[in-house]
Amino acid sequence: MQIVADANMPGLAPFEALGQVTRVEGRTLTREQLGDAEVLLVRSVTRVDEHLLAGSRVRFVGSATIGTDHVDQGYLARQDIAFAHAPGCNARAVAEYVLQALLVLCQRQQRRAADCRVAVVGLGNVGRRVADWLAALGLSVQACDPPLAAAGYHGPFTLAPLESLLEADVITLHVPLTREGPHATRHLLDARRLARLTPSQMLINTCRGPVVDNQALLTQLSRGQGPATILDVWEDEPRVPEALLKQVCAGSPHVAGYSLEGKLAGTRMLYEAFCQWQQRPLEPTADDQDKALLNQDVTSDAQLLALLQQAYRLEEDTRRLADSLAEPDPAGAFDRLRKHYPVRHELHHWRHHGQVASGWQAIVSRLFAS
C-alpha cells in the first residue's frame, strides 16, 4: 500500500506497518507527488480537492486537524473517497495556550482573571474545554454557538447571540471557518463589530485567521481603539502583516495546538479511522512512562502563569515570528517555524508538586488530569 503523508506528522509508525509511507511538504503537494498512493494524510496547509485528486488512486483521506475547511468533502463523497479528521485532538494544547494568553493579558492590564467576564465563541471540542477551564478559574463564562443553540443545547453554559457578548472583558474565538450559510464565520468579527471593542477588552483568536477581519483590526489597533489582542492565526497565512504583528500584544505562527501529545493524538485518530474503514485490528499503543515532577506553588494568577510557562512560553513564539518577518521569504519562514517547531508538551506530561490555594485547585487539577 502506498501512503503519502505530511512531513510534519509524527507517530506514523502504525501506518508504516501497513505500507510504504512517503513524506511530503504539505503546502506544495501536487498531483504528481501522489503517484499511486491510495492513502493521503494531511494537515491544514494542504488543499484537498478535485485539482489535487482527480485521476489519482486515493481512496482514503485523513486530516490530522480539528478544522476541515481545507478539504472539499463534497468532492470526496461524490468520488466515494473515505474521509476522517481528528476533532478534539489538540483541544488541551489550545486550551493551555488560551489560558496563558488570558493570564498574560490580565497581567498587562493589572486585573485578576477571576474578575473577568468571558465570551467563548464556539462550543466545539476546543471551545467546551476552554469554557470549562476558565469557569474552573472563577471567570464568568457565556458562550455563542448559533448552530448548537438551534440543535437544542442543554449544557452548563448560557448561550447568547454574539451581539450581546461584545461587551465581555474577554472574547476568545473557537469556530470553524465557513464562508456561506446562515452562520458563516468569515469576518465574524468585521469592522462594525470590532469598532465596538475597546482597549480595556481582550481578544484571543486561535481558530482560523479569516474569522477576524485583519485589516479592520489593524485599523482599530493603530488608532489606539482596539482590544488587547493575541493572535495565533492570520487571515492571509502564511503571510503575516508586520504592521499587525507590531500592534498585537503577542502573536504566533498557527501553533496553539502544536503540542506533541496533540499531534500524536491526531495521527492516532486517523489510524483508528483507517482501520475501522478497512476492518483491520488496531495495533496497541505504547504504555505511558513514569512522569517527572513539575514543581510550582500556585497561590496566585502570576504563579499559575509561571506554571504554564514551564511547559511553553508564548513570548518565545512571538519573538520567533517577528524575526521571521525580516527574512527574504517571510511566508516560507512561517512554514519553517511550524515544520521545525520545538517539542512542546502538555502539562499532563508531568506530575505536579506544590502548594495550590483553594481558588486555583480546580484549574490545576484539570491541567494535570490524564
Automatic annotation (TrEMBL):
A GO CC term assigned to this protein in UniProt: cytosol
Enzyme Commission designation: 1.1.1.290
A Gene Ontology molecular function term of the record? NAD binding
Q: Where is the D-isomer specific 2-hydroxyacid dehydrogenase NAD-binding domain?
A: 109-256
Keyword Membrane among record annotations: no
- Residues noted as binding substrate in the record, renumbered to the chain: S44, T65, Y258
Q: Which GO terms describe its biological process?
A: 'de novo' pyridoxal 5'-phosphate biosynthetic process; pyridoxine biosynthetic process
Q: Which UniProt keywords apply?
A: Cytoplasm, NAD, Oxidoreductase, Pyridoxine biosynthesis
CDD domains (alphabetical): ErythrP_dh (cd12158)
User: What is this protein for, i.e. what is its function?
Assistant: Catalyzes the oxidation of erythronate-4-phosphate to 3-hydroxy-2-oxo-4-phosphonooxybutanoate.
Q: What is this protein called?
A: Erythronate-4-phosphate dehydrogenase
PANTHER family per the record?
FORMATE DEHYDROGENASE 1
Q: What class of enzyme is it?
A: oxidoreductase
Kindly give the SUPFAM superfamilies that the UniProt entry links to this protein. Formate/glycerate dehydrogenase catalytic domain-like, NAD(P)-binding Rossmann-fold domains
| Residues annotated as catalytic | R208, E237, H254 (proton donor)
Query: Which residue intervals define the domain D-isomer specific 2-hydroxyacid dehydrogenase catalytic in the entry?
Result: 30-279
Entry-linked Gene3D superfamilies:
3.30.1370.170, NAD(P)-binding Rossmann-like Domain
Which InterPro entries would you find in this protein's record? D-isomer_2_OHA_DH_cat_dom, D-isomer_DH_CS1, D-isomer_DH_NAD-bd, Erythronate-4-P_DHase, Erythronate-4-P_DHase_dimer, NAD(P)-bd_dom_sf, PdxB_dimer_sf
Which proteins does it associate with, and in what oligomeric form?
Answer: Homodimer.
Task: Give the catalysed reaction(s), semicolon-separated.
Answer: 4-phospho-D-erythronate + NAD(+) = (R)-3-hydroxy-2-oxo-4-phosphooxybutanoate + NADH + H(+)
Native organism is Alcanivorax hongdengensis A-11-3
Erythronate-4-phosphate dehydrogenase dimerisation domain location is 294-349
